[in-house]
Amino acid sequence: MPVRQLTEDIVNRIAAGEVVERPASVVKELVENALDAGASRIEIVTDGGGRRLVRVSDDGEGMPREDLALAVERHATSKLPDGDLLAIRSLGFRGEALPSIGAVGRLTIVTRHASEPHAWSISVEGGAKSPVRPAALGQGTRVEVRDLFYATPARLKFLKSERAEAEAVREVVRRLAMSRPDVAFTLAGEERAPVTFPAAMPGPVGRLARLGDVLGAAFQANAMEVAIAREGVAVEGYAALPTFSRANALGQYLFVNGRPVRDKLLLGAVRGAYADHMPRDRFPVVALFVTLDPHEVDVNVHPAKVEVRFRDPGLVRGLVVRALQDALMRGAKRAATTGGAATLAAFRPDPDGAGNARGWDWRASPARPAAPPPAGAPRLAGFAEAAQAAFDVGDPAAAAAPLPAAEADALDRPLGAALAQVHDTYVVAQTRDGIVIVDQHAAHERLVYERMKAALEAEGIARQVLLIPEIVELDEADVERLAARAEELARFGLVIEPFGPGAVAVRETPALLGEIDAAALTRDLAQHLAEWDETLPLERRLMQVAATMACHGSVRAGRRLKPEEMNALLRAMEATPNSGQCNHGRPTYVELKLSDIERLFGRR
Questions:
Q1: Which of 187, 460, 520, 533 is deepest in the core (most CB within 10 A)?
Q2: Which contacts of 561-567 are long-range, i.e. CB under 8 A and separated by 24 or more positions?
Q3: How far apart (Å, rounded) are the C-alpha atoms in residues 530 and 544?
Q4: In a domain, 338, yes or no
């Protein structure tokens, strides 16, 4: 088969296939051009999910007539003044976006530079360029794309529904708005009310305000500031509390030199930093901004510029992990503010049993006398039934503790003073402006885990020798796994050795766990080792062992505590980092403000 030169039209369409994947790609390229042009206000209008119309208007510096004519040519750019691909300080630089868009749609650009007496316009339809003509526009640029992919109808079949494409456009605008809080963004069209992100003040306060506008007030209330810098690399931004998490990784927003990216290295660093605080099926919500010298990062490894490559990936990953861990140490004593709202929601009655909560009806009150339901009648689900159970004759459900005079000052502490223990599982404490409900097992589990980590870093975990070794029968595969990890387990004070083909002998246990069920702990560890990901670093695997041991060495649910023990637990939680959640990512306490309780009873 002979070799032939591809026509310019085919070349443009191939380039468009790399750059213009969907309408959201068009929005991304055009908004990035507006930001590079120094715009302070950007308006995006779409129709049909961007298929029928994409219009991006900005108040940037615009282009003179000569630049406009050259801007729609292949590989023409104003963003590489010296041609150095290792010193890219702008969002766009390839010079492929505008000609690629014009190759598959109807592109019109109207722009005016401050040096021009009026605006200029140019059109590109299916790769065919029109001459530059005079036009009317204030300073700035307006780019309009209609009938996207009309020149390549086969591409239309791969687009999703208009709603899905519109959501992709919205996500692109959200990410770019987070990267530039100093710029005002407006997204309109699609028969929806316009979404506006007003310009914010510079600095961390303005960044948090913009993140609150984009991600919601709940993120703003549960965010911890992240800031660290070393060897020319800075990591800034905000990360949410571990108890404020999501079921997927879509809430992780990462930026490198202002460019939104989906980098595996950074995503892995975020996952590693939260590993001690979150279950495997939950994902943190973060917005991190990495800034470094352009020579230290290659942004030219993907046509859509969504992936980057660092010259020193170890340094960047280590900084991200350290920055997040420092933030968690400072702020993870708090529980998510959404916990109180979820608790209040549990109090709302569900009269029809279908999750349709309605306002409180006194007729549904358990205190109202009512005739017994007929035999065989379905029971109504909801809080009313649970509340009635509290009045059943039987053992007391709560043990109230009088507040000693010495503990009166504890009302001013973050977790207040302990008043009662409910169902031998939950500690109820009073603060000056509300109440706190603590899960005693989850809270003590975190305390034991942090003590184990501290002891391991200091002088090692002390052991207690069992007078009579405990023999634990296991499958042969489990025995082999435990024997292979015996040295690692010994670092945590658990000394085991094989005892025949289907058993192990436990000779020593960690001293700080006190009296524990060594057999149950050994069986749990054997099951845990079977699920280990061998690609994880040794330190990460050891922390998983420590978390399992801490679970067995903590105060169990169902154990009645004395008032002094309850208050000691609260004080220890206040002094321990990461005490807002247990090792599995569940909240250790829920706080209800007095105003919330008053609303529950209709006082507000």
A1: 187
A2: 561/421, 561/427, 561/440, 563/401, 563/402, 563/404, 563/418, 566/401, 566/418, 566/421, 566/427, 566/429, 566/440, 567/407, 567/410, 567/417, 567/418
A3: 12
A4: no
- Tell me whether residue 51 is exposed, middle or buried, using C-beta atoms within 10 angstroms of its C-beta: 0 to 12, 13 to 18, 19 or more: buried
Helix, strand or coil for residue 130?
coil
Token output for 599: 């609303």
Buried b (16+ CB within 10 A) or exposed e, 481-496: bbeebeeebeebbbbb
- Residues 89-123 have pLDDT tens digits of 788 666 678 888 888 899 999 999 999 999 999 99
The CA-atom distances, in angstroms, between 275 and each of 113, 332, 585 are 52, 13, 9
Residues near 82 by beta carbon (within 8 Å), at least 6 away in sequence: none
Total number of domains constituting the chain: 3
pTM metric for this prediction: 0.69
Residues 186 and 276 in one domain: no
* Average predicted confidence (pLDDT) for the chain: 80
pLDDT band at 558 (very low <50, low <70, confident <90, very high): low
Burial of 207 (0-12, 13-18, 19+ CB in 10 A): buried
Domain around 580: 400-604
Q: Is the pLDDT of residue 452 over 90?
A: no
Same-domain pairing of 125 and 214: no
- Is the pLDDT at 262 greater than 70? The verdict is yes
Final residue belonging to a domain, choices 130, 163, 197 = 197
Same domain, 549 and 586: yes
pLDDT at 454: 78
CB 590 within 8 A of CB 343: yes
Model confidence at 275, in pLDDT bands (50, 70, 90)?
confident
Q: Mapping DSSP to helix (H, G, I), strand (E, B) and coil, where does residue 571 land?
A: helix
592/335 Cα distance (integer angstroms): 11
* CA 55/CA 109 separation, integer angstroms: 10
Closest of 540, 517, 545, 513 to residue 529, by C-alpha: 545
Is residue 325 within 8 A of residue 237, CB to CB? The reply is no
The CATH number linked to 253 is 3.30.230.10
Distance CA 117, CA 445 (A): 72
Q: How far apart are CA 47 and CA 190, in angstroms?
A: 5
Residue 366 lies in a domain: no
